[in-house]
Amino acid sequence: MAVYGMLAKFRTEMHVRGHAVSDPTRIEADYLIETTFDPRVAAEAMAGEQSSGTFVPVPGETPELKARSAARIEALDIQDIEIPQPSLPGSVNPKGVTDPIRRQARVTLSWPMDNIGPSLPNLVATVAGNLFELRQFSGLRLDDIRLPATFAEAYPGPKFGVAGTRRLAGVGDLPLIGTIIKPSVGFGPDETAALTRTLCDAGIDFIKDDELQSDGPHCPFDERARAVMRVINDHADRTGKKVMYAFNLTGEIDQMRRRHDLVRDLGGTCIMASLNSVGLVGMIELRRISDLPIHAHRNGWGYLSRAPMLGWSYVAWQKLWRLAGADHMHVNGLQSKFAETDESVITSARACLTPMFHDKPCIAMPVFSSGQSAKQAPGTYAGLGSADLIVTAGGGIMAHPDGPAAGVTGLREAWEATMASVPLDEYARERPALAKALEAYAA
Amino acid sequence: MAVYGMLAKFRTEMHVRGHAVSDPTRIEADYLIETTFDPRVAAEAMAGEQSSGTFVPVPGETPELKARSAARIEALDIQDIEIPQPSLPGSVNPKGVTDPIRRQARVTLSWPMDNIGPSLPNLVATVAGNLFELRQFSGLRLDDIRLPATFAEAYPGPKFGVAGTRRLAGVGDLPLIGTIIKPSVGFGPDETAALTRTLCDAGIDFIKDDELQSDGPHCPFDERARAVMRVINDHADRTGKKVMYAFNLTGEIDQMRRRHDLVRDLGGTCIMASLNSVGLVGMIELRRISDLPIHAHRNGWGYLSRAPMLGWSYVAWQKLWRLAGADHMHVNGLQSKFAETDESVITSARACLTPMFHDKPCIAMPVFSSGQSAKQAPGTYAGLGSADLIVTAGGGIMAHPDGPAAGVTGLREAWEATMASVPLDEYARERPALAKALEAYAA
Fold it and tell me: What's the predicted TM-score (pTM) here?
């Protein structure tokens, strides 16, 4: 468990370092590695694999070519702790070494922009390609990436971000109080619309489809969008408040384009896509064709990150999607039903609110979800230092003892209390919706 | 290490089970899980998270809705081994249990097609979504998926596969003898073309760009394609043999479309894309617009698979890309420079050659690469039981002591010997290219 603690500390430090690249002609990436090799030799193998080298010297790999194209080790910080067991299988020890010492190290590599140009798909192959399979390593994790300003020129970033989302949702300083249609799947269009009506009447700001619900035969996208938007438009006509509904349009390019156009034409104000389903190129294309905020769902994130010495940190990963155009980024939530620590959740959410480039911050609004209810408001606000967020409580609203309307009210009251620095139980004394929420979700 | 052995055995068994789904209206997925909960209770949590459940019961989750939409446990096979340490952090134990037993189990879940319809992007959110983060599990890995025939109707599969690739490359029974342009990056268009000329003259069948080389400023795609195809077309005019060159066009949709059209118009016969860079939707779109075989590179595969109790098995993962249209799928190679075991490589390659559907096999040609040379031919052929493959040797051709031409000759001779059941060293007696290859790459 000491290792996990150390990792959490390390990631927090990485985050605080900020996003500026030291040389505007080079890409930088930070890794945490674990190896029984001399860490510098191992880092050189990484640099070689991801640029001009291969497993043997080849003709043409001249000093001039290497100077032009090779990845460089910019920093190497060896941790002074011996790691008893390899974190991952398949690693080898240096030849002839009988009792090797296994250590972890932080490595920063850099690449010349001339290798790939400002291309997100090719950036991924460069900083997160074959290297995870190298057998010099029993652990290799991408902790951060820093990109030169040419990337900011090549990609649009979020079209709406915090300000655009607040404007469309008509929400001033509080977080957007949101929910997910639950049950996740199983409702048809009419049942979805009926629940939307209940939630609108309860004063909710934001509703999203579940990531499991896109265009199944039992709940076709077009019918759902029409039924839901009739309710939302009717509510807006009566009250002046247009609830933001993130329609999950995850699908192929033509499907997403057609669904987006339908939502826009119906007066909808948000679309949603699953990042690991559409992929980077699907997301880039979606941003190009979209006139609406893009709510980015990260389902599948676990397989990219849950092994502590493998894969991606969220700090590195979220930069790709923000640059590609995601307006809202899922980050789990405090005390969630998932395996992630609260510290990691806060680090992720803060990363979304940290500017990527000096002239182009690409801020995405973090979305807190999974087991969320009124009780997490104070901790979330304290950790994030901002209320520029969306909170989506599914069961935390739908399963409120007095029904969804009380669920919305109780959750908003929790945030009102938090932002007024009033303890929840004090604020709840005169407010039964909050009081019952705190009781119902205490466990 | 016992665990890894067990896993390898398990995966082989899974592979042998084949690809038929038991109920044509349902999707099936097999997982390996690790938990201190009653495995059935834990499996129910997975099924709930990935269908109609959430962390508390919600209104509307009626018995009728569950019958219609809930995921079902189809099989549960608890392993009779206690696992001393959790494979992944973040898991919890059942409440009130002080000394829990941690076990692994194989679970098969199924979902009604009515939840998502035949959509690959939404399939991914369903079978490989949030569940990896559930804290009931200290390990969760997707081992296989089986899809109803409606998926075969909805997606095209490979346009060329083995037969189309052999026809375009003019290669009969042997594997396609191939190489990767090395150094991976650093050559400009003219140097790439000059090396292509050397390799054509040496009689090579197949050349690919490195995955690090797509459209960098130092080697722009269009200039490279024009320079290389001048050489290949000239060689074809003189000899009648058109070498297949997989141009790495990884990029955004419009870029890939334009690059594909250029390659096709220049008379090229193959394009290449990095799967984890373009994503599923990018790949589906590429297949839709492509008139050429698609060479699918899996760089980044390590972060999806290297933790034994997390992520994806290749057996499950490759099905998505084959159905989406990949003609060639990378599988590493025997005795490679990577961490994967030879057994795993062979399991992956055999999966690519195993039909997905009765009427639509979607066979993709496995591509063996990474540290490949003449020496691996017998083991590869013995393991795969087929020569329907592409072998790409980078250093294994380029760094041959007598140069790339001898590298190609030696590698082809190794396969000739193998397919004639002649030991390599015997065949090498009169063949210096093979003899020197065996000596040079013996380590």
Answer: 0.94
